[in-house]
Amino acid sequence: MHNFSVVVLLISIIFGTYAYFNQPIEEPAWPNDIPGFAFSPYQKGQSPFLEKYPTPEQIDRDLELLSGKAHAIRTYTVDKVFAQIPQLAYKYKINLALGAWLDKDQARNTAEIERFIQLIEQPPYNIVRAIVGNEVLLREDLSPEQLIAVLQDVRAKTSVPVGTAEPWHVWIKHPELVDEVDFIAVHMLPFWEGIALEDSIEYIVDKMNLLRSTFPGKPIVITEVGWPSKGRAIKKAEASRANQAIFMRRFIQRAQQEKYIFYMMEAFDQPWKNRLEGSVGGHWGLYDVDRQLKFEQQTPIIALPEWRFLAAASALLAVAMIAFLLIDSGALRKRGRSFLAVLAFLISSLVIWMIYDYSSEYHNWVGVLVGILLLLGVVGVIVVILTEAHEWAEAIWYHQRRRPLIEVPVQQGVCPFVSIHVPAYNEPPEMMKETLLALSQLDYPCFEVLVIDNNTRDESVWRPVEDFCAELGERFRFYHVSPLSGFKAGALNYALQRTAEQAEIIAVIDSDYRVNPDWLKRMVGQFHEPNVAIVQAPQDYWDYSQNAFKAMCYAEYKGFFHIGMVTRNERNAIIQHGTMTMVRHRVLQAVGGWGETTITEDAELGLRIFEQGYAAVYSEHSFGKGVMPDTYIDYKKQRYRWAYGAMQILREHAGALLDWNKTQLKPGQRYHFFAGWLPWIADGFNYIFTVLAIIWTGLMLSDPVQYNAPDWMISIIPIVFFGFKMSKMLVLYMGHVGANLRTALAAAISGLALSHTIAKAVLWGLFVGRKMPFLRTPKLADSHNLWQALLDAYEEALMAAILLTAAVLLYWKFGFDTFEINLWFAVLLVQSIPYFASLMLSIISAIPNLRGDWVRFKSDLSNQ
């Protein structure tokens, strides 16, 4: 009942919001006819750049449509089929302000003018004005002297009034033109000047008064006046269908009062103009390219006539999302379900609006392809956000855990034998001695320890460990094997072959781990359930308080072990990690031992065991602690290995996860093995987006007309994704992990610092897939100096510098005049944050004495 009430409320909010923003706007009615339209009869798919022109029949149909709606039309050229327009217009009693196109091509200009004069001086004599050139001086195609010469020639050879069309400021700048024309043909397009809609009509009146006072007695004809229905904003001027309707209807009423002669810009949308004017170029028409009116001319204006359909589509999509998100939500409280429902409605509204907005554009095949890729990108981001939100809800708003850890003491007289395997390669002997000493103090009677040193060349490194094992007694066996293939998995399989026959459980710890004496005593009892094959405790670290770098990294690690693993455990889908793990011996042998085809053999083994229908048990309690990476480069190598290995697993187990190969995986397990690694995959594709963003910004700076700021739909995606990602981390860390704001921010910086590394690992692992060498994380390494720290993060520093430079150049070139520019500026800054975080963390790692006690958890305080 609660879910139903929330859905009904949200549907009401959606419809109410749409209705509020689409209230009818009363504006002056469109008259039966107007003085004229600017007329370009290009149809869909036609363009002068493609040399595809309208046919006489198509022009005739356009003129028929305008018949009775305007006294005249204004044209731009007499080339090719356009020379037939006067004859075709005569049929519908439409006069012409005939235009001749001039550009830098003098030979073409000469031919154009000859044809132009000929048409004026021959029947049917419906040409009432001659417009020689269109914005020639604005484009600087001709000098004022060259244009004046052409004007003088045409005036001498024709009997109709002659002018040339330029924006108002060009006439003010070149008053010498006025004496050479019979009328001033002026363009009044306040949109291009960034004038707000509310001020646009008075702006035109003001400029007309300026022209009248500057050139008294000279007739003035507005040969272009209008507003686009779609496209980028310019300063305060916003393009929309409603704004176009409001502008046109208001202007016509004022023009009648002021007795202006004008040609409305324009009769029909011209998509080919996008190449000249950017995204607004094709949307100036009263009719769209299919010759459909864009807005009502008599009734009140509704900003979005289709709002009911869009609201319904948003609601239906949201309900579908909610149904999917709440499939397995029995453990969620009402707040958690409400949170997911609200998020689904917000996302559905955004998606429907984006689809609607993009579909109202004019696209060629490239645009369609971009649209498909954009939609796929949006879907990908939405899937990541929804899975992250699902984890968010399950981490905070739950009634009780479905699979809480209930400690099972080992029964009296029952002592399952445990074989503990410690793989090592070139590890500091003193550190390993501490590890082995801790194992010797386990409060559990039935165990052995096998130390497998594989491929360490320096005998002075492994020999002391061998001697120490001998001192610890017969429970401890040491093997030095060289050569041994398979890296860590190879060493573990080697140990497996030499495990005591009576061993029921295989336990693995890393060579730097100091286990608690009660580890086996408290956890072995979980194997009393015959279906349990894995018992896992979290990784933990004893050296995290040594300095700020380790403290920050430790904060980032906490999220996985105390949020991600906990929620995954709810559906028996934990990631097995290769330390503090125990595996049932017979199951390990049955599935073929440790896999040597991936570099994350632990996670891959866990998935193979799940595929056979076995269960895992996870404890949040720490039973041992190791050492952390000492330098940023080692921190990166460790995460690169984890991310690359995850992609290897996805490739190798795709059939099982997608159910191509029948296994005993449950839907919840499949979900978590995809959803858990989706944020990493998103980092990979976000890197591609960042590279494309840099390229696009360069194109914008070099050719701002052809390459506009991307539509808000593109810009909003990375901003929303970043904002959601950071919000989730801060909320979960402060609300669930027991962190304060400083600690949560430290974890966020550490996580962001790995974005570039993860992105490279994901892209390489998904699309290249060649097996990479095992990247060992060195233990007790020396800290690097500052210069080395900068070198360790040089790729990230370079990307940060490029993005910041691009943002600065964008501001220098365009300022903050338009919404799209501001949004794209924000995108560049947001995309730079992970790269700056990498540089920051690398520098911090080079300062080993920098204190880290400001990174604190509640559990730290309670232990003091």
Automatic annotation (TrEMBL):
Keywords carried by this UniProt record: Glycosyltransferase, Hydrolase, Magnesium, Membrane, Transferase, Transmembrane, Transmembrane helix
Gene3D superfamilies cross-referenced by the UniProt entry: Glycosidases, Spore Coat Polysaccharide Biosynthesis Protein SpsA, Chain A
Transmembrane residue ranges: 307-327, 339-356, 362-386, 674-700, 712-733, 745-767, 787-811, 823-847
Keyword Kinase: no
Top-level taxonomy: Bacteria, Pseudomonadati, Pseudomonadota, Gammaproteobacteria, Thiotrichales
Gene Ontology BP annotations: carbohydrate metabolic process
A UniProt-annotated Pfam family: Glyco_hydro_17
Organism: Thiosulfatimonas sediminis
Identification of the protein by name: Beta-monoglucosyldiacylglycerol synthase
EC number: 2.4.1.336
Catalysed reactions, as listed in the record: a 1,2-diacyl-sn-glycerol + UDP-alpha-D-glucose = a 1,2-diacyl-3-O-(beta-D-glucopyranosyl)-sn-glycerol + UDP + H(+)
Metabolic or biological pathway, per its Swiss-Prot or TrEMBL entry: Glycan metabolism
Molecular function in Gene Ontology: hexosyltransferase activity; hydrolase activity, hydrolyzing O-glycosyl compounds
Compartment list: Membrane
GO cellular component: plasma membrane
Glycosyltransferase 2-like domain residues: 505-720
Predominant localisation class: membrane
Membrane topology: Multi-pass membrane protein
